Amino acid sequence: MRFRSFNKAALLAATLVAVSFAQTAPPPDLDAWVARSMKTFEVPGISIAIVKDGKVVLAKGYGVRKLGEAALVDEHTDFGIASNSKAFTAAALAMLVDEGRISWDDQVQKALPSFQMYDPYVTREMRIRDLLCHRSGLGLGAGDLLFWPDTDVTRDQVVAALRFIRPQTSMRTRYAYNNLMFVVAGQVVAAVSGKSWDDFVRERIFAPLGMNDTRISMTSFKPGDNFATPHSRGWRLEGELRPIKGTQDVTWAAAAGIKSNAADMAKWIEMQLNHGLLDNGKRLFSEAAQREMWSPQIAIPVREASGPLAATTPNFHGYGLGWDLRDYRGHKVVSHGGALTGMVSSVTMIPDLKLGIVILTNQEETGAYSAILYHILDHYLGAPAADWIEAYHSSAMEQRARANAAEKKFEQSRAADSKPALALEKYAGEYTDAWYGKATLRLENGKLTMAMSRTPAMVGDLEHFQYDTFKVIWRDNTIPDAFVTFNIDYRGNISEMTMRPVSSLADFSFDYQDLLFRPARAAAARSAN
Question: Is the overall model pTM greater than 0.90, yes or no?
Answer without folding.
Answer: yes
